[in-house]
Amino acid sequence: MPTNKKENLQFGFLMCFGMVLVMTIYNFYLHGTIHEMTFMEGVLNFLIAFIVAFILDLFIVGPTAKKVAFKLTARTSKKLYKILAISISMVIGMAALMSMFGLVTMSLHSGFHVETVVTDYLTIFGSNFILALPLQLVVMGPLVRFLFTKFIQSPGAASATV
Hints:
Oligomer: single chain
Number of helices: 4
Distance between the termini: 4 Å
Structural class: mainly alpha
Low-confidence stretches: none
């Protein structure tokens, strides 16, 4: 989809914004904090999560996911397979790292218990992954790709590579 660094940054910003927004609201609801915080606390939590997620996307998960996806799809020229491989790799990486972020922020609010760290992490990762994968594949991925090609990507670049 994106054909240069500027477009890659714009596409990543849109995708990250949408995914973090939905996942933040989901996690607030899941942990019962959606009714306990003010609107500004929610916005601040979202902004912090978005900044962390965007940095992870740009520098760690995005490049790694693309390398993995292109290796997995090296023998095919089907664009759909490449998009699915990138999307699934991104969800796995982002869910894993953002679940660590969630565990840290949860521990800051409710206290850190060493004996339950692994169990808590796996629970957070599982609940995030269960929503993030279909959200990415069915809703956010197609929506962001549509918006990107319609309003951001330069004309003629739509036929370029993934």
